[in-house]
Amino acid sequence: MASAAITLAAEAPKLSSANTGFMLICSALVLLMTPGLAFFYGGMVRVKSTLNMLMMSFISIGIVTILWVLYGFSLAFGSSNGFIGYDSHWLGMSDVGLTDLWPGYTIPIFVFMVFQMMFAVITPALISGAIADRVKFSAWSLFVALWLTVVYVPVAHWVWGADGWAFKLGVIDFAGGTAVHINAGAGALGVILVIGRRVGFKRDPMRPHSLPLVMLGAGLLWFGWFGFNAGSWLGNDDGVGALMFVNTQVATAAAMLAWLAYEKIRHGAFTTLGAASGAVAGLVAITPSGGAVSPLGAIAVGAIAGVGCAAAVGLKYKFNIDDSLDVVGVHMVGGILGSLLIGFFATGKGQSTATGVFYGDHSFTQLWKQFAGVGAVLGYSLVASAVLAFLIDKTIGMRVTEDEEVSGIDQAEHAETAYDFSGAGGGLSGGTLTAATETKKVDA
Amino acid sequence: MKLITAVVKPHRLDEIKEALQAFGVHGLTVTEASGYGRQRGHTEVYRGAEYTVDLVPKIRIEVLAEDDDAEQLIDVIVKAARTGKIGDGKVWSLPVETAVRVRTGERGPDAL
């Protein structure tokens, strides 16, 4: 994010209404991605865990929003030794002036804070897809709070903080290929290595219960992603945000087509789930790279990510790891591909003058920097997330009982079911309204 | 009386209904069913994972008939349900002891 400060010679930046308005809209767009993700995932699970899947995303909006205002933003974006930041004025955001500008930019600190909040909200929510059907809601809620604090905040600081070591090294991550997608994907891998597989993995058919919901979710993600990507330049004064917007669209289209072509050849059909998955893979891969590559480069990044992720999602059966909705296969693999491809396709005419192997003096310098960023985030998130999951498992326990998992986590954890399938509008369930007026705790 | 049960392809329902109406049948019961015979199932693919779906959607039609009409009625259903392809389904009949029209209390053939 953001190496070029928008300044005129020796003149301090002034608040820009246009950039401020644009960034507030982008923040709302990024928020919309989390409900979009909820439906993308929610349609992919079986009927009996639909609500739990939706709720794992929604609870992240609640928990992360509060923690971000209280201390998350201060630790992620305060000044530092390179590893974790701190700024006492930003704790609770009550000591910040309404027109105090984010240093070097034309938008208020409040705007930057809330834009970054939406990134912090969706990143833990991404992990939830890997652990479908089987994790206690209380354990997940605790995990979100701890993971935000121990994993997301430091990694965001490395990559985007003005003092972060990766940022200073020159690792390019425009909107979150490392900090969001590799971080969430590697975190998901760490968690599932600890908590294990679903009952019946590789034996029972676990088909998506509603592909229309998946498509709806993918559409909302695609739409919101323009805020996520184009907004990450924090303004529109030099055209880089517009390049990012164009590349986001181009790479996503290329990835969707590539995934569909791959599976038509391998499996004989153009599937709906393949179209939705390919689009998301493209969005993931262009997230770090879209400010550095040309639109032709974006086609290459998208196509490579589409085929790469389509090939990667099958590996879970080979390794016998239950990455239920392919968070590792799409977000970690897509994030790695997008981040490393910068080292090949960076033109030097976008967000910075750094060039990849195919441009400029054909040097590998940027590629090695990208490797450093990818490796550090992947390794740290994998280990730290596994440790967090292990600690929660040993204290309050990560998983619901086998009975609850088999009969359905929605009923067990939320005391609800997603759909009423009875033709008579609920009259066939054989129940009565027992306690509409008195407070009664359900056994869930 | 006889109970005639037909398990057939869902898209033949309208044809069968019209044929039965033309024959003079006043009422029938339809339920959604699933199953397989010689047709077996089909394969679906989700992100490269292939699932074999054994049970195929079918429609189960139940009609009550007087003994004299039963065989002819079965022929009407079979004719309307037939596509000639594998998976067309089955029709069978069973004897029925009694039948009552709930509204009036009429019993036996009068209740049909």
Automatic annotation (TrEMBL), chain B:
Keywords: Nucleotide-binding, Phosphoprotein, Transcription, Transcription regulation. It comes from the Bacteria. Gene3D superfamilies: 3.30.70.120. The modification O-UMP-tyrosine is found at Y51. Pfam families: P-II. The keyword DNA damage does not apply. SUPFAM superfamilies: GlnB-like. GO terms for cellular component: cytosol. One of its GO terms (biological process) is regulation of nitrogen utilization. One of its GO terms (molecular function) is enzyme regulator activity. Homotrimer. This is Nitrogen regulatory protein P-II. It comes from Streptomyces resistomycificus. The lineage of its organism: Bacteria, Bacillati, Actinomycetota, Actinomycetes, Kitasatosporales.
